[in-house]
Amino acid sequence: MNQDWIATAATLSxxxxxxxxxxxxxxxxxxxxxxxxSDEAMYSFAxxxxxxxxxxxxxxVVHGGGPMINEMLSKLGIESEFVNGKRVTDQATMxxxxxxxxxxxxxxxxxxxxxxxxxxxxLSGKDAHMMVCDQTDPELGLVGTPADIDVTILRxxxxxxxxxxxxxxxxxxxxxxxxxxxxxxxxxxxGALQADRLLLLTDxxxxxxxxxxxLTEMSPTQIADLIADGTIAGGMIPKTETALDAIAxxxxxxxxxxxxxxxxxxxxLFTDHGVGSLIREPKA
Length: 284
What we know:
By secondary structure, the chain is an alpha/beta fold. It has one domain: 3-Layer(aba) Sandwich (Carbamate kinase). The chain is built from ten helices and 14 strands. It has helices spanning 3-22, 33-36, 39-54, 66-76, 91-115, 152-159, 182-193, 220-228, 236-248, 264-270; strands spanning 26-31, 58-63, 82-83, 86-87, 120-124, 131-135, 144-149, 163-167, 169-172, 177-179, 197-202, 217-218, 253-258, 277-279. The strands form three sheets. The protein has an eight-stranded mixed β-sheet, sandwiched between helices. Strands 7-6-9-10 form a four-stranded mixed β-sheet. Strands 3-4 form a two-stranded antiparallel ribbon. A hairpin with a 4-residue loop joins strand 9 and strand 10 (177-179). Helix 7 packs parallel to helix 9. The radius of gyration is 19 Å and the shape is globular.
């Protein structure tokens, strides 16, 4: 008998308790622009998402697209201005951001999921008034912070066995379009859905201690301490802050993991040890 078949059957058998554990659960996945990588990586991610739905989960995909936006701005000769390290989004930049996120990136993910046998629907936070935002800071221009979240359309799509794929754009109270940090969008939507898991797929292996070792499980209190003492720094700060906000809103757990690793989502959800850094309240 083929040893590969035996190994596959054994893996499926070991996954059964986890399949039962997550049946009916909502999992929000933030796919970062750096984690999208090659077409092969994209289709591997798409297969994982389709499999998650097939075994009874309700996945929601929120994506970024920073590298793709930078590339298009460069091609068009649009220079970016930064305030305290954050890009100012004027109307010309916003037009490019919307074109890239709602057009190129969103369509690419939807197509990959469809090609792998899933039924995906592309959206942005502007659709069906899903995400109404306030301006984050006038100095940053058209950058928004989620204020009101309505996830009715996401629940309807799940009822129709469709996978929502959401571009991180929001609507202002005057109808303007806002650029919103993708992690922030994923956390806000996960909180509104009371998701079981929020998976933040990035290009690093997780939260690391000062020695560079990945911390596999932490509490919100530990995360706050690591931010305070400088262990968590740079781009990991907004990701961990998103995790803390999501948990405060009722998300059961958040995982920061390397989206470039093959089958990262499946390894996290359906194996004993998972991958990346798990953040949740301590068990009583």
